[in-house]
Specification:
With about 190 residues, the protein is mainly alpha-helical. The protein has 8 helices and no strands. α2 packs antiparallel against α3, α3 runs antiparallel to α4 and α5 runs parallel beside α7. The chain is globular and about 55 Å long.
């Protein structure tokens, strides 16, 4: 099923309204859809390199808007579904402790999930459930998603189809390594 969903998403790149399709995929991926917009974005940029940065801009705006929808899903559904379950099991106090820790570092969680292969939708919903500051969430989402999509666009614009395999297979790993090194550097500076 996931393979057919992937193929369907990829086929949207050939559609006359591919930019709208990208916006929809990027929006719903940020809260529920399992296929990342990169799949569609890469195919669109390879087909039309001169539109690379427009395509990345559409993906960024739609993804952040979808992230806000995910935030509000977490914000609304947690109060109606999640909290009563925690209260029933006597674990609601643990959530308050988790919420305080998450909100202290929430901007970093959003940044990390926004650029790495970690599902961004999990962080959008969790950010709403913990009531992370909405402006902090939005700014971190804009930075993370723009960084991710514009780097992909720039690589494809500069190197074209030959870089496609690297992007599809290894760019997520490169972003993850970058984040690990960045966080490691912060920890070294903080604790030395």
């Amino acid at each position: 099923m996931l393979k057919s969903l992937y193929d369907w998403t990829l086929s949207l790149a050939r559609h006359p309204h591919a930019l709208w399709a990208l916006a929809i995929v990027a929006f719903i991926e940020s809260s529920v859809f399992p296929i990342p917009p990169d799949v569609l974005m890469v195919a669109m940029i390879v087909a039309h390199p001169s539109r690379a940065f427009v395509i990345a801009g559409v993906a960024t705006v739609a993804s952040v808007a979808g992230g806000m929808a995910g935030y509000f899903i977490g914000y609304g559904a947690f109060e109606t579904l999640g909290r009563p379950v925690l209260e029933f099991y006597g674990k609601d106090a643990y959530f308050e402790e988790f919420q305080a820790r998450y909100n202290e570092w929430g901007a970093w969680a959003v940044l990390i999930a926004g650029v790495t292969p970690f599902p961004y939708k999990v962080i959008t919903i969790l950010s709403g459930a913990t009531a992370l500051s909405l402006p902090v969430f939005i700014v971190a989402s804009i930075v993370a998603r723009a960084l991710r999509f514009f780097i992909v666009a720039a690589l494809l614009w500069k190197f074209g189809a030959p870089i496609r395999d690297f992007i599809e297979r290894r760019l997520g790993l490169m972003f993850t390594l970058f984040v690990v090194l960045l966080l490691g550097g912060f920890l070294v500076v903080r604790y030395l």
